[in-house]
Specification:
single chain, 277 residues, alpha/beta, Rossmann fold, Epox_hydrolase-like, AB_hydrolase_1, hydrolase, Tropinesterase, AB_hydrolase_fold
Length: 277
């Protein structure tokens, strides 16, 4: 494990293939999740020749809880700073859920550093919640029942196939929700996510791959949402059967194959996807 120093604290991350100068992939988890969500995808990508950095969100996993800003924009700038820390871009940025929103923002503000996007079950519309919905959700996040609610909610998003170590991953999520001081930090990020920032999609010029599980219950129609994202960004689209909100953990082999096909050069070497037409 390594740490990226930021003004108010440190972001924990791990780096696969640190000894190489191969193209860089940065992976961002979703809210409430930990970097181990990429525990099967990251090794597959590094085995193909990439350097792969997998980060924790602010207040999550092994990152510090001392931050004053837990916004999605702050997460985007953490990813951008990590790319700079590791030698600069272009990098391929993979984001799941809220991490996908942050990835798109990073691509908009630093097109020189983001050479491609893989948006896995990403939230890009930025509507947020209604006042009644928000008030209800805030009440459900309160202790003592809040950590249990978040844990059950996240567990329910794993519809379809599951990795052999799925139970261990859920146990790790429950463990990192348990300490009151850490849960307070996580809650601040979760509450911020009820007001997603516009992803500045008009400014995104990086080529993109949209990945969505057919059983993702975060949308009434996952296929329709994926089609909208793909059309909006001129992106490739991959729908995965027997997968919910976490294809990178539930169908890691299929996601790895799609990412490698998206990013590899004409001669099959690790690289970045070609620019959008």
């Amino acid at each position: 494990m390594r740490h990226l120093q930021r003004p108010d604290g440190r972001i924990a991350y791990e780096l696969h293939n640190p000894e190489t100068t191969a193209p860089l992939i940065v992976c961002i988890p979703g809210m409430g999740d930990v970097r181990a969500t990429y525990r099967h995808l990251a090794p597959a990508l590094s085995a193909a020749g990439y350097r792969v950095a997998v980060m924790d969100l602010r207040g999550h996993g092994d990152s510090d809880i001392s931050f004053t800003d837990y916004s999605t924009v702050a997460t985007a700038h953490d990813a951008v700073t990590l790319i700079e820390e590791l030698g600069g871009g272009p990098a391929l940025v993979v984001g799941n859920s809220l991490g996908g929103t942050a990835a798109a923002w990073a691509a908009a503000v630093r097109p020189d550093l983001v050479g491609g996007l893989v948006l896995i079950a990403a939230f890009l519309r930025g509507e947020g919640m209604s006042g009644v919905q928000e008030a209800s959700m805030r009440a459900m996040l309160l202790r003592p029942w809040g950590p249990s609610f978040v844990s059950r909610y996240l567990a329910g998003l794993f519809k379809g196939g599951k990795a052999a170590d799925h139970a261990d991953h859920l146990a790790a999520i429950r463990a990192h929700l348990a300490p009151p001081e850490r849960y307070r930090a996580i809650r601040r990020l979760v509450e911020n996510a009820f007001h997603p920032v516009p992803a500045r999609l008009d400014e995104v010029v990086a080529p993109a791959l949209v990945v969505m599980g057919e059983l993702d219950s975060d949308w009434p129609d996952p296929a329709e949402e994926a089609a909208w994202m793909a059309e909006r960004l001129g992106a490739r689209r991959l729908m995965l059967a027997e997968s919910g909100h976490y294809p990178q953990a539930q169908q890691a082999e299929a996601v790895a194959e799609a990412v490698l096909d998206f990013a590899r050069t004409d001669d099959g070497a690790p690289g970045m996807p070609p620019p959008r037409a």
